[in-house]
Structure formats: structure tokens, C-alpha cells
């Protein structure tokens, strides 16, 4: 990892090759080796390492994320089916939660409540956001009444999303389709002026998300797409043609669902008003 950070990709690839000769059954190590291969402009080697990792752990999100980049670098048409920017990324405008007369009234109360949960300190280094704060604890099923009202609508939306997925035992995302699901984590992010999320994935999820509680007026900028969520641009230092494959405009009450291994981030915005969201990861109920 240090060699990658120092941009000594060739040395990093050689070091990982030596490590894999001793510990070749470690999917996480194979994913890190693949990252070095991508940075070193060896996508074929990176792809082979990802395939080895997925043979060990078919649901390893980092291996899938690195595989998507390798395929794009190789102009491999399988990448579109893997990532599903159009078919697997869903945009849902939720119904008004129980007990409220409008989505505007609900989101106003939700945002006010979330503001009290956000810490006064800035983001931690390991978090994806820059220029904002993130709540430290799980939000769902934690006794927050207004959040519970939203979760009822989210439960319905996630169930519809899963029910609409095509069954395909050979696809790493679709093969996990199950009737039941559970939340592996839930939190709120609040971005301020010039804030954004770096490109990242969710290694512990199956389905990931973003619900918009409040957005700044800057998101109306359809040319610069300020504050929009973007998909496909990797968090790895490689050159790709048209790295952003899809961008979605936020609006209060909107929920976006997508595979957890899909690279995503936020385009920075300039606005005094914050951008407040709730995110969560879903996994099949039967998986440990």
C-alpha cells in the first residue's frame, strides 16, 4: 500500500506478486494487488487477480469494484452488465411518510432532527465526505420516531427494488437476490459549501443508497451538476475516457439505490445551504 501511495506501481505489483505466492487465498490481498495493477496500467493482470479473489469470495465488493475498472480499461463489454449503470441504479421518489401531510413538511422535521444528531467536529479521515459531518451511530431501529417513519417507506422501496431484480445465478449482484433483507448500517451525512464525497464503494454491503432530506439550490445547475451523485468514476488513479457513467440530480424525498461495489461520489457544490442525506447498506437476510 505504501508503494502505491508513493506512485511506485511497478514495485508494488512485484511486492504483491511475492505476497500472493505465500497468501494467494486472501481475497482482500488480491483486491489490493489488483488496485496496484490498475495504477501500473496492467489491467489484464488486475482482472486475473480479481477473478482469483472472486473464486474465493464471490461477493467481495472490492474485487468487483477493481474488476469493473479493469474491464473498462480493456474495453471489455462485460463491464456494462456487471455495473448496470442504467438497469441496477434505481431512482425512487418516496411516498409521504405516515402522519405527515406533505413530503416538504416531513423533510423539514427530519432535517431539523438530524441536525441535532450530527457532531460538531469535522469528518474523520476514513470517511468518504470532505467538508461536512457524518453521524456516528446506526440510525435505523434506534428509537428515532421521525427516522422510523422514513424507514417504513424505505422498507417498501427496497422490497420493490429487490422484487424487480432479474434472477441470474451467474451475476455477482443478482445472484444474492433473496426475499428478505436487513440493514448492515445506516447513517446521515451533511455536506457544507464546497463539500463532496470522494469516489468510493461500500465494502460491507450488497445494496447501497442515498436518501435526500435537504439539498441546496445549487443542485438545479444541470450543466455543472453541482451536488449530484455520480457513478462510475473510480477512486483509483487511472485515466478513463468519460469516467462518470451516470449522474443523478438530488431532490428532497428521493431515494437512489445501487450495487455496493459501484464506484460513486458527489460533485462538489457552492452554496451556503447544506446537503443532508441518509445512507444505508442492505444485505440479504440469510447472510451472516
Task: Please summarize what this structure is.
The protein has 288 residues and is an alpha+beta fold. It has eight helices and nine strands.
Explained architecture:
The longest helix has 19 residues. The radius of gyration is 19 Å and the shape is globular. It contains eight helices and nine strands. Helix 2 runs antiparallel to helix 3, helix 3 runs parallel beside helix 5 and helix 4 packs antiparallel against helix 5.
Please give a handful of descriptors for the protein shown:
21% strand, 288 residues, globular, alpha+beta, three-stranded antiparallel β-sheet, 9 strands
Number of helices: 8
Strand arrangement, major sheet: 1-7-4-9-3-2
Shape: globular
Biggest beta sheet attributes: 6 strands, antiparallel
| Average pLDDT, all residues | 93
Order of helices and strands: HHHHHHEHEHEEEEEEE
The N- and C-terminal alpha carbons lie at a distance of 29 Å
Low-confidence runs: none
**Over all CA atoms, what is the radius of gyration?**
19 Å
Number of strands: 9
Sheet/helix structural class = alpha+beta
Q: Estimate what percentage of residues fall within beta strands.
A: 15-25%
Q: Helix proportion of residues, in percent?
A: 25-40%
Please describe the topology of this protein.
Elements: H1 2-5, H2 9-23, H3 27-39, H4 43-56, H5 61-73, H6 78-83, E1 90-93, H7 103-117, E2 129-134, H8 145-163, E3 181-197, E4 207-214, E5 229-231, E6 246-248, E7 254-259, E8 264-266, E9 275-284
Helix pairs in contact: 2-3, 3-4, 3-5, 4-5
Amino acid at each position: 500500500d505504501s508503494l502505491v501511495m508513493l506512485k511506485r506501481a511497478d514495485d508494488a505489483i512485484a511486492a504483491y506478486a511475492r505476497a500472493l505466492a505465500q497468501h494467494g487465498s486472501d481475497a482482500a490481498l488480491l483486491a489490493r494487488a489488483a488496485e496496484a495493477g490498475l495504477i501500473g496500467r496492467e489491467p489484464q493482470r488486475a482482472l486475473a487477480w480479481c477473478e482469483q479473489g472472486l473464486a474465493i469470495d464471490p461477493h467481495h465488493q472490492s474485487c468487483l469494484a477493481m474488476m469493473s475498472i479493469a474491464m473498462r480499461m480493456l474495453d471489455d463489454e462485460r463491464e456494462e452488465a456487471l455495473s448496470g449503470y442504467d438497469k441496477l441504479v434505481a431512482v425512487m421518489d418516496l411516498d409521504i411518510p405516515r402522519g405527515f401531510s406533505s413530503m416538504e413538511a416531513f423533510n423539514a422535521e427530519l432535517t431539523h432532527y438530524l441536525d441535532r444528531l450530527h457532531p460538531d467536529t469535522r469528518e474523520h479521515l476514513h470517511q468518504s465526505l470532505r467538508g461536512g459531518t457524518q453521524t456516528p451511530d446506526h440510525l435505523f431501529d434506534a428509537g428515532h420516531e421521525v427516522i422510523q417513519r422514513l424507514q417504513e417507506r424505505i422498507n417498501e422501496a427496497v422490497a420493490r427494488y429487490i422484487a424487480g431484480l432479474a434472477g441470474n445465478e451467474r451475476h455477482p449482484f443478482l445472484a444474492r437476490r433473496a426475499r428478505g433483507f436487513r440493514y448492515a448500517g445506516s447513517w446521515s451525512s451533511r455536506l457544507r459549501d464546497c463539500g463532496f464525497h470522494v469516489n468510493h464503494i461500500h465494502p460491507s454491503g450488497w445494496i447501497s443508497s442515498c436518501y435526500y432530506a435537504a439539498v441546496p439550490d445549487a443542485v438545479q445547475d444541470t450543466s455543472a451538476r453541482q451536488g449530484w451523485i455520480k457513478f462510475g468514476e473510480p477512486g483509483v488513479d487511472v485515466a478513463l475516457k468519460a469516467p462518470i457513467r451516470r449522474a443523478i440530480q438530488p431532490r428532497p424525498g428521493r431515494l437512489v439505490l445501487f450495487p455496493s461495489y459501484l464506484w460513486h461520489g458527489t460533485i462538489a457544490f457552492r452554496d451556503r445551504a447544506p446537503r443532508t442525506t441518509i445512507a444505508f447498506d442492505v444485505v440479504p437476510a440469510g447472510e451472516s
